[in-house]
Amino acid sequence: MNKNLEIEKINLFNQMSQQLDEKQQEYQKILKEQQNKDQNEIDELTAKLKQKEKENQNFKELIEQKSQEITNLKKQNEQDKLQIIKTLEDQKNKEIQEMTQKINQKESEFQTIQRQLDQINQEKLEKEKQSKLELEKIKQYPKTLLFSNTYKGANCQVSEGGKVVENSNSSYYCLCEQAIPKNGKTLFAFQMISGTCFYIGIGFRDIIQKNNYQCTGVGNGSYMIYSSGYTFSHHNKDVNGKQLSFTFTTNDVIIIEVSIEHKYIKWMRQNNPLATVLEIDTSISQELYPCVFNVNSKVKILDNIPN
Q: Which residue in 271, 216, 242 sits closest to 6, CA to CA?
């Protein structure tokens, strides 16, 4: 039975990993299509700008030509041509006025197109900047991760600048200060320093706090794995309290991978191919935090994710 369950878990993990890869490929494809679309819009707007500039230049040259014609007519001294000149002047002035209006209109259109182009470029830069910031935030997450001196059970002792938590007398949660980013795939790692009973995973801070930082399982706000292989789910009774072959003990390093977007948490043990995956409920309007449930044990947050 356990073997079949493990196979199902591995298949589920492979399926979710494949879905994640497909989503990443889809995202890259969409990003590439959007970049191509943006570039096409830029090229189209640039061509329009050049065309408008050419039209403006033609209008200006035509105005100069008409003005020169008026000047030449004025130089004629024949009295009988004065009325003709006056008529022509009026006509040319009207043409100049109409051309000036057209030039002003074209310049207004030019400015509108220029603003659109600037907006597209700005949006493109903002998207690139936001993507870099999110990637850097995820990359730096393990280095900034600390156990909280506030959101923990009474007997939990936090030390080493927030990197270590210990509980020698009872069973309590200790949550981390930093929430898990909602975008991307987040990795962090715990090392089992001492003890024999370890629970590690993620949880909803408000729910755990209401339960006085005690209790695991359905409705208690966390997704945990116990060192003897039992899994605990906040929302799924089918996997809550199930024992798997994924176990760990003192000195082991457990790497945790979380994707809020794809609704899963995965536990991996360093230098071991086994992994365990649970679905997480993201419909709750609360942030998730890394956490441990100490039972006479000592756990450390690692700054770097082991290979």
A: 242
Q: How far apart are alpha carbons 42 and 118 in whole angstroms?
A: 10
The predicted pLDDT at position 135 comes to 64
Q: How far apart are CA 192 and CA 137, in angstroms?
A: 26
DSSP-assigned beta bridge partners for residue 296: none
Nearest-angstrom CA–CA distance, 118 and 281 = 41
Residue among 178, 127, 137, 133 at smallest CA distance from 291: 178
Q: Which CATH number fits domain 145-301: 3.65.10.20, 2.60.120.920, 3.30.70.920, 2.40.128.110?
A: 2.60.120.920
pLDDT along the chain (307 residues), means of 10: 73 75 75 77 76 76 77 70 80 85 84 85 78 68 92 93 90 94 93 94 96 91 95 94 93 96 95 93 92 93 89
Long-range (24+ apart) CB contacts under 8 A made by 266-271 are: 266/13, 267/200, 267/201, 267/225, 270/189, 270/306
pTM of the prediction?
Answer: 0.59
Cβ-in-10-Å burial (0-12, 13-18, 19+) of 251 comes to: exposed
**Measured over all CA atoms, what is the biggest interatomic distance in the chain, rounded to whole angstroms?**
119
**Environment class of 146 (CB within 10 Å of its CB; exposed 0-12, middle 13-18, buried 19+):** middle
Q: Is 225 helix (H, G, I), strand (E, B) or coil?
A: strand
The domain ranges of the chain are: 2-141, 145-301
